[in-house]
Write a structure and sequence with these properties.
Radius of gyration of chain B: 25 Å
Structural class of chain A: alpha+beta
Strand content of chain A: 25-35%
Order of helices and strands of chain B: HHEEHHHHHHHHHHHHH
CATH superfamily of the largest domain in chain A: MetI-like
Structural class of chain B: mainly alpha
Number of helices of chain A: 18
Helix content of chain A: 25-40%
Radius of gyration of chain A: 41 Å
CATH architecture of the largest domain in chain B: Orthogonal Bundle
Number of domains of chain A: 4
Oligomer: heterodimer
CATH topology of the largest domain in chain B: MetI-like fold
Number of strands of chain B: 2
CATH topology of the largest domain in chain A: MetI-like fold
Largest sheet of chain B: 2 strands, antiparallel
Shape of chain B: globular
CATH class of the largest domain in chain B: Mainly Alpha
Strand content of chain B: under 5%
Largest sheet of chain A: 9 strands, antiparallel
Distance between the termini of chain B: 38 Å
Number of strands of chain A: 32
Distance between the termini of chain A: 28 Å
Largest interface: A-B, 98 and 102 residues
Strand order of the largest sheet of chain B: 1-2
CATH superfamily of the largest domain in chain B: MetI-like
Chain lengths: 654, 307
């Protein structure tokens, strides 16, 4: 056999040396294709392996809306534009403007359209009277630049044409071919159609009940109706002003850009200035919490005057009453919160920080108590980019955000599904804080980390004590029965563990160790077949002479082990440490059966528990997972070769 | 020579050797005690328990073959056995093929072997729980990665872990993701194949396929054989993944053998019956391992055989 091999090898070398040029070229081309093939496959495989983990990381940094709407995307936040000098922020949208360019816009209203036909242009020869059963289902279809409710008409000769129905004709339905209608159909604002006077137009024998549009033709609305969103340049927001909801009056429709908008004049403003409403919502007076703490106090309602005036602080209308002091002195105070018997008041001169906030920013407030009056407040209220503490006071107000019509010169309308939110990259690291601080049955992830870390340390102690001693005995000492015992040791590595499960549980149960960490580390003090084998193989590779030299100097077995073998076995000990960490950190089944209260859970068990509690909050679930796997991933990156070598050694030779 | 000294070997030694033997037994005593306490005794005890009715908190009552009779009529047992066999059939060959494929690629003369190996190994470092949590999200019919990608090419993906017919395939797909350890072993195996053999094929005019078929595969067969047995043993005892991903559902479609055993033992407290299940699993695994072992003569190539 070996002679044949050698002949072949020399033959191979000869061919390599004598290879003709032509062959060489084709081989290198083949090799190039092979390379491309190899790298392509490697990349695809690596993507499959790596992408889910990368995806997990991005998901852990996403806001919840993005999890639900954009499964594959980078973590982003919605971009807003501040409205005038208010704290309100308007969402910014991306859309295509009539010139075909991408533009960032804000929404300023909606407009409903319908498809109409010009009755004056409708001629008798377009009309067909058809029985209802000859017509198919209605299907909104885009024809030319309008949308029509198209049905299929099956004629008596069996041929089919697309039609739209116009009116009833006794038992029949009056339809017209779509082809003919496109010439007379157009899109028109519903408001414009409805504003027209009702008219009846005769076309041949048929009569149609239409609308006479002012300065236009008589039209018949066919539908379908559609709603478009009116948008305008984001610069509009800069000129926005906030006014009480009753201030905009005299609604009327004006054409702006290629669309129409409702505009208003404002009470108390010049009558020829027109405004467009950007939003209308509920606002809430707030006041700096520090002012409340410094100057506000509770008084009995009896000490406040019956008479109440309204004073406005930064648009926030607040009740002001007169407070009579015990010495008879009188002062004007703002009533912040009024309960049945007492009120929280603040002197007018200290009330300067009262202002309005959109109510949406004040959700889920905390409560504190001042003189028996509960005060709702938020400590993370953001105003102009700064975080503040504000108390919620007074009565809610309906306010309108309006912008001068002069600012809106370029409004246009778009289908609402063509609008997408403007976003920018933002990593929601808050997810991690939230996931880690979630209460999981009286424990948090930090508890699980503590338990897992403690177990790792105890298992390290156990393995370093037991594995080194046993491995040394198997590697160096001679004794009858050793070979059989070694075979037993190896075979226990492959033993299915379920057969040991129930009696082991019984043992720990008798020892009152259920729901403690004991069952999860005590066995490491009795060795581990895999690690014993690993270390024994390493010990066998250490030259006997080094040991003999120590023996001559009078060292006993333990001293040899401690002073000679272990210092030379650092790589193997590192492998043992890493495998111990790996198994302890990832172990699930045993913690699952032995631990019952969350305060004792390990990281893996805690993660499983977290999943059962917060199944579909994927952003938090992924944050928790990332934290759970981070330690082992880091160790893997820094100590990869110990993983690889440990697996190679035991995998190949076991 | 059949006197007492030869039958008890330790007495047959000179004092120095006897001392060494004593030290040996003293040093391995932690492992020996552990062996008896946590392996030998539990195995014997669970064998005994498998013939008893034994509820948590009560004493075991010997019922002979009662548990085995019950087993034959237990729908969950047969279901879990079927689920597990299907899982093993899907997961083990798939993992083996993928791992060998990756190892073959990594064995080429490529740049950055360490980089590629790190990526391929990464999923295997992570706990089965974390993987199951991640794949629970990946397989989400609405928001998951798989269905989003499928939707991008116009396919409406199935309900995966929520669909009775797709839950087990989901579990098998998930298992194919963690082949890192096997890749490492196969890669080492391929690297150990003498280059001479490949050159010989080249002389005979064989291409890549011939090199794989006539050199790599036979030379790797002992490693494949070993991994197959390990994979078989592990796949039969799979618990963490199905527990966290589907908890045996929907409608017991992923009720693996160990999930069923766990439920019997710790949810219903039937420790005796659970011991029977454990021993039946033990026998199944041993039987299949023996089968693979016997078949190995047909396909595993040992160099020594032909010398």
């Amino acid at each position: 056999m070996s002679t044949i091999d050698e002949t072949r090898r020399s033959a191979a070398q000869n061919t390599l040396l004598n290879r003709p040029g032509g062959l060489h070229l084709s081989q290198s081309t083949g090799r190039f294709i092979g390379k491309v093939f190899t790298y392509t496959l490697l990349t695809i495989g690596a993507a499959v392996m790596f992408f889910p983990m990368f995806w997990m990381l991005t998901a852990s940094l996403k806001p919840e809306w993005q999890i639900l709407t954009e499964p594959i995307s980078i973590p982003s936040e919605w971009v807003h534009v501040q409205a005038g000098n208010t704290v309100q922020e308007l969402p910014l949208w991306n859309t295509t403007n009539p010139a075909g360019e991408q533009e960032e816009v804000i929404t300023i209203g909606t407009r409903r359209y319908t498809t109409v036909i010009d009755l004056n242009q409708l001629t008798e020869d377009m009309l067909i009277s058809a029985p209802a059963d000859a017509l198919g289902e209605t299907q909104p279809t885009e024809v030319g630049n309008v949308v029509l409710n198209v049905r299929t008409l099956t004629r008596e000769d069996g041929s089919q044409i697309p039609v739209a129905s116009l009116a009833r004709d006794g038992g029949n339905i009056l339809v017209a071919p779509v082809e003919a209608l496109t010439a007379v159909a157009s899109r028109m604002a519903l408001a414009e159609v409805n504003a027209g006077e009702r008219v009846t137009v005769e076309v041949g024998d048929a009569s149609f009940k239409g609308r006479q549009v002012s300065d236009g033709p008589a039209v018949l609305a066919l539908g379908p109706e559609s709603e478009l969103t009116i948008v305008g340049p984001k610069a509009i927001a800069e000129q926005a002003i906030l006014v009480p909801a009753e201030v905009p009056v005299g609604e009327s429709l004006v054409p702006i850009g290629n669309t129409e908008l409702l505009h208003y004049s404002l009470q108390g403003y010049p009558a020829d200035e027109y405004y467009v409403q950007l939003s209308s919502e509920t606002w809430q007076p707030v006041i700096d919490l520090s002012d409340v703490n410094a100057s506000a106090f509770a008084v009995e309602n009896a000490r406040l005057s019956e008479e109440v005036t309204t004073r406005t602080f930064n648009l926030a209308a607040m009740p002001v009453r007169t407070l009579t002091g015990e010495d008879g002195s009188q002062a004007e105070v703002v009533v912040l919160i009024r309960t049945a018997a007492t009120s929280l008041v603040i002197p007018v001169e200290d009330a300067g920080s009262i202002r309005l906030s959109p109510i949406s920013r004040l959700a889920e407030p905390f409560v504190l108590n001042i003189g028996g009056i509960p005060v709702r407040y938020r400590d993370d209220y953001v105003e102009h980019g700064e975080e503040q503490s504000v108390a919620i006071v007074g009565e809610r107000l309906n306010m309108s955000l309006v912008a001068p019509q002069t600012a809106i010169t370029e409004a246009f309308d778009v289908a609402s599904n063509s609008l997408t939110r403007v976003t920018r990259l933002r990593l929601y690291y808050e997810n991690y804080i939230e996931a880690l601080s979630k209460d999981l049955g009286g424990a948090t992830f930090f508890t699980f980390f503590g338990n897992s870390t403690l177990l790792v340390i105890l298992n390290w102690l156990g393995h370093f004590f037991s594995v080194t001693v046993v491995a040394y005995a198997f590697a160096r000492l001679r004794a009858p029965g050793k070979n059989i015992l070694f075979i037993i040791l190896l075979s226990t590595m492959m033993l299915p563990w379920p057969v040991m499960l129930i009696p082991q549980y019984e043992i720990f149960s008798r020892l009152k160790m259920i729901n403690t960490l004991w069952p999860l580390f005590i066995r490491s003090f009795f060795g581990n077949a895999f690690l014993i084998f690993l270390l024994r193989q390493f010990f066998m590779g250490i030259p006997q002479e080094l040991e003999d030299a120590a023996r001559i100097d009078g060292a006993n077995t333990l001293q040899v082990l401690w002073n000679v073998m272990l210092p030379l076995s650092k790589p193997a000990l590192a492998t043992i440490a890493i495998f111990t960490f790996w198994w302890t950190w990832n172990s699930f089944f045993e913690p699952y059966i032995y631990l019952s209260s969350p305060k004792n859970y390990t990281v893996s068990l805690g993660l499983g528990f977290f999943k059962s509690q917060y199944r579909y909050t994927f952003h938090l679930l992924m944050s928790a997972s990332v934290v759970a796997i981070l330690p082992i991933i880091l160790i893997f990156f820094f100590a990869q070769r110990y993983f690889i070598e440990g697996i190679q050694l035991t995998g190949l030779k076991g | 020579m059949s006197n007492i000294r030869t039958r008890i070997p330790i007495l047959n030694l000179n004092p120095r050797a006897r001392r060494e033997a004593l030290v040996f037994y003293l040093m391995i005593s932690p492992w020996l005690i552990g062996l008896v306490l946590f392996i030998v005794y539990p195995m014997a005890r669970s064998l005994y328990l498998s013939f008893t009715r034994y509820q948590i908190g009560h004493e075991p009552i010997v019922t002979g073959l009662g548990n085995f009779n019950r087993l034959l009529e237990d729908g969950d047992f047969w279901r879990s056995l079927r689920v597990t066999l299907l899982y093993v059939l899907g997961s083990v060959p798939g993992q083996t093929a993928i791992a060998i494929g990756i190892a073959l690629l990594l064995a080429q003369k490529i740049r950055g072997v360490n980089f590629w190996r790190t990526i391929y190994f990464l999923p295997s470092v992570v706990s089965a729980v974390a993987i199951a949590v991640l794949w629970f999200y990946v397989f989400n019919p609405q928001y998951g990665l798989v269905n989003t990608l499928l939707a991008a090419i116009g396919i409406k993906g199935p309900g995966w872990v929520f669909d009775e017919n797709w839950a087990l395939p989901s579990l098998i797909l998930m298992s194919w993701w963690t082949v890192g350890a096997q890749v490492v072993i196969y890669l080492a195996g391929i690297k150990a194949i003498p280059q001479v053999l490949y050159e010989a094929v080249e002389i005979d005019g064989g291409g890549s396929w011939a090199r794989f078929r006539h050199v790599t595969l036979p030379m790797l067969s002992p490693v494949i054989f070993f991994n197959l047995i390990l994979g078989l043993i592990n796949a039969f005892q799979v618990f963490d993944g199905p527990m966290v991903l589907t908890n045996g559902g929907p409608n017991k479609a992923t009720l693996t053998y160990m999930l069923n055993l766990y439920k019997q033992a710790f949810d219903f407290g039937n420790l005796g019956y659970a011991s029977t299940l454990a021993w039946v699993l033990f026998l199944i695994i041993m039987g299949l391992t023996a089968l693979v072992l016997r078949s190995s003569a047909l396909w595993v190539y040992y160099e020594s055989e032909q010398r």
